[in-house]
């Protein structure tokens, strides 16, 4: 179930990453290494959120993602 992808190639784990759920880091590497259509893994997304957080940018879903997500 956690490997199912949407039209953008995102899995449920990607979606959790977009919303800043750091707890996903505890999941098996197999789930964290799946790339979406943009070539991002859930860990890539968390890393980007962390970078934005340190710059004082609102980290809660603010990055533009193919007309549907924004980090």
The helix content, as a percent range, equals 25-40%
Instruction: Name the beta content range.
Output: under 5%
| Biggest sheet layout | none
Structural class per helix/strand content? mainly alpha
**What global shape is seen?**
globular
Helix-strand sequence: HHH
What does the radius of gyration come to?
Answer: 11 Å
The total count of strands amounts to 0
Low-confidence parts lasting 5 or more residues at pLDDT below 50?
none
Report on the structure:
The protein has 71 residues and is mostly helical. Helices cover 34% and strands 0% of the residues. The chain has 3 helices and no strands. It has helices at residues 12-18, 29-32, 42-54. It is globular. The model has no long low-confidence stretch (mean pLDDT 84).
Blueprint of the fold:
Layout (H helix, E strand, L loop, with lengths): L11 H7 L10 H4 L9 H13 L17
Helix pairs in contact: 1-3
Essential attributes:
mainly alpha; 71 residues
Summary, kept brief:
The protein has 71 residues and is an all-alpha fold.
